[in-house]
Amino acid sequence: MIFRLVVNGSPTTIDTAPATRLLDVLRDRLGLTGAKEACGRGDCGACTVLIGERAVPSCLVLAARVDEPVQTVEGIAAEAAGLREALADMGGLQCGYCTPGLVVRAHQLVTSRECDLSDPDNIRRALAGNFCRCTGYNGVVAAIQHAAAGGGKP
Ligand code: FES
Ligand code: FES
Questions:
Q1: Which ligand 2 atom lies nearest to the CA of residue 133?
Q2: Is 111 helix (H, G, I), strand (E, B) or coil?
Q3: Residue whose C-alpha is closest to residue 65's, from 54, 75, 48, 51
Q4: Model confidence pTM above 0.90
Q5: How many whole angstroms from 153 Cα to the centroid of ligand 1?
Q6: Is the CB of 140 under 6 A from ligand 2?
Q7: pLDDT tens profile 54-88
């Protein structure tokens, strides 16, 4: 099956089996290995990417069904630089396996302001789909609040 995708601003044509997941196209066809596979069933958020404005687990999405631009953690790297730095400096990053998906979701939170980010409970609720076994989330929440307040080196 041949279809078109726009990934990180670049249109591309993909020829693959109809049931191929977006995660596999990103990693295996396009070399974008930022999105990670962990659970493979939509529970952990390690594979999160942006489809249009939504942060979505790419392991649950059929690539051929995607009809909006995709942004991966590589595509938002510059825009999310302050957030990434804050995560590293404020204890929001340890082993790093969850980090690419978490950066995508956190960046979407900071830019969309879908909830009041001054309330840590709102951030914790919004991150319910992004599992982190290392940090306990306090550093993650602090980093998101830092980025939402304008960023800069913590
Ligand atoms: S690998 Fe996609 S949600 Fe866990
Ligand atoms: S930093 Fe290790 S799982 Fe989040």
A1: 3
A2: helix
A3: 51
A4: yes
A5: 30
A6: no
A7: 999 999 999 999 999 999 999 999 999 999 999 99
